[in-house]
Amino acid sequence: MIRVLLIISLLSLSFSLSYAQEGSRDSVEVDGMEKEGRVNYPKKLLVNPEFDFKLKKTETGKFTISFYKKSGKSVTIKIYDLIGNLIKQETVSKSGLFNKEYDLSYYNPKFFIVEAGSSEYNKTKSVIVE
Predict the structure, then answer these.
(1) Beta sheet of 75-80, edge-to-edge order
(2) Which pLDDT tens digit goes with each residue over 74-107?
(3) Residue 46 lies in a domain
(4) HSE of 19 in the Cβ direction (CA atoms, 13 Å)?
(5) What are the backbone dihedrals phi and psi of residue 103, each rounded to the nearest 5 degrees, phi first?
(6) CB 3.0–4.6 Å: which of 11, 21, 48, 96 could bond 121 by disulfide?
(7) For residue 86, what are the β-bridge partners?
(8) For 107, which DSSP code?
(9) 51 touches 119 (CB < 8 A)
(10) 3-state SS, residue 22
């Protein structure tokens, strides 16, 4: 009985993965599945070693984000609070050095998650601005 359920779940996962790959240009091809039901993803999943950004606290409740963007896809910056609510979102499309200060002094607590990237890659960092 357990084997039948495992086979059914593997087939439904396989179908949903193939459907996601056909329907989306941003999907990821899966390398395979282990017997325990774990999915093996490629090692280069959404990683761009050439892109990185820096966060620096400037004052209480304020921080700057800076990065260098080469030409190509635009970079989306998302800032989340401690429980995952999206606070701010901004898209940067021009090439070159990007440097901007964000004032979030009106939010409590002073811990934020910052995600920057595109549909091909992203990086996530956190900052405490107390």
Answers:
(1) 86-92, 75-80, 111-117, 122-128
(2) 999 999 998 999 999 999 998 899 999 999 988 8
(3) no
(4) 6
(5) -105, 105
(6) 48
(7) 80
(8) S
(9) no
(10) helix
